[in-house]
User: Fold this.
Amino acid sequence: MSGATFSYNSIASYYQDSVSLNFNVLAGAPLNKGLPIVLKIKQNDTSIVHQQKIYVCIGSGTTTLADSAENVTGNWTFTGGWGTTTSQSYSPPTSFTESPTGNYGNTQTRTMTLVAPINVSSFPVTVLSYYYRHDIEPLDNAYIQVSSNNGTNWVSVKYYYGQQLSWKQEVLDITELANSSSQMKIRFIIVTNNGTTSDGIYIDNIKIQNYQDVLTGVLSNGEIPREYSLEQNFPNPFNPASNIRYQLPKGGLVKLTVYDALGRTIQTLVNENQPAGKYEVRFDGSKLSSGVYFYKLESGNFTDIRKMMLIK
Assistant:
């Protein structure tokens, strides 16, 4: 950029920061659902420099993993030295650590990987939480990673270094990385260089919770749709789950139903009053046979039907 000057008091102050956003969730909010909020950060109140969807999860959801390190190694594959220890724990007597007998070593990669993949294909929202503490040299890093294809590829969602000497809870929305996969895995990994070693990281009370029936809400620009619409599901063909989007120009009773080729009701996805807006519902066909299915939207005087194909 030419002709512009930027002046910062301290680059470090812009490296890492946080802000608290306060809002109220109405008492009538649906339980065990992830309610989306679109966070936009603007420069000079005009240009959007960052946009992110954040889910506010109501209720306890469905727990697909809960491990307080008392099961020893049952849920995990350890490499490089990971194991359990009684020297530190959030919920006694044990926690996970990459170096149970002392400091970690130089130039090492140590991993703790979930043994069995978790099927989250019927859950649009996935949240990972755990307690942690650490003492890690600044040039070493511990990572939390997610795979949506049974460990073939990994993406980091969080990393740690430095000192956090008291227990702290981390809650991570891993929805996008889980990608409603039928073979999702997580792993904890530490990577060290050829320098000073330290105590490492401790992990306890690992939990994965899932939430259903995510609503996309009113269009992000605040406009109300001008007409009813039922979109083609995606992906299509699909296996085992697919997304269905629709929009409402006004509020009212909404019914979204899935039928088989003989016209028999397979599942009622929505049957409730909804305000005007744009919505998305996930249909899980994991227990169904391959074939043609239909989904029907009814609201007010509007009715529309579309066809989808399940191929296994």
Observations:
- Residues 229-310 form a domain with the Immunoglobulin-like fold (CATH 2.60.40.1930).
